[in-house]
Amino acid sequence: MKLLVVEDERDLNEIITKELTINGYVVDSCFDGQEAYEYLSLNEYDGAILDIMLPKIDGFDVLERIRNKGIQTPVLFLTARDSKKDIIRGLDSGADDYIAKPFDLDELLARDRVMLRKKVETRENIYRCGELVINYNNYTVFRRDKPISLSAKEFQLLLYLVRNQGIVVTREQIENNLWHFESENSSNIIDVYVRYLRKKIDDGYDKKMIHTVRGVGYQLKAE
Question: Of 14, 36, 54, 206, which one is least surrounded by beta carbons within 10 A?
Fold first, then answer.
């Protein structure tokens, strides 16, 4: 399981990250809301532990932005803001759980396990971008209700693009998230798979969804 810890108090961030790592999680950490939004937009996490009072963008705004993009990463708010109003706002805005500081590490771990178990059992995992519908549960893809057959790598690439729809993603970002290797030919491999994907997604349609941004990367757009 891969988690993101977002906490601007660096000592506390380190304590939480260390405890999660000891308990077998792969953990990324960051210290402000802008970083959190970028991490959650460009990487796939099984869950995020998110403070509310963060520099640059607060936790409520981070959650709202990722939910508006269709990113359904489970989020547990861990914050000093413990009023009933804040708790209700956090849960209503799409958080899966809410813990007020000060907190117990064992309770945090238990809540985290519940959150991740809930994700595995109940998440719908359906992503939409205009006419395109991707069901992560059964690995099916449709455009205008027409089924599209993709290889495993093509599906992963399309899922990454749809999770970042409207955003230009670089070849390096695609490589880091999908291929996890460094090679002189890695950029060419990515270009080849984008061509495969474009042929299956866009051929026969007037409206093209996969766009090349020269010298930068690719972008999936609904319109």
Answer: 206
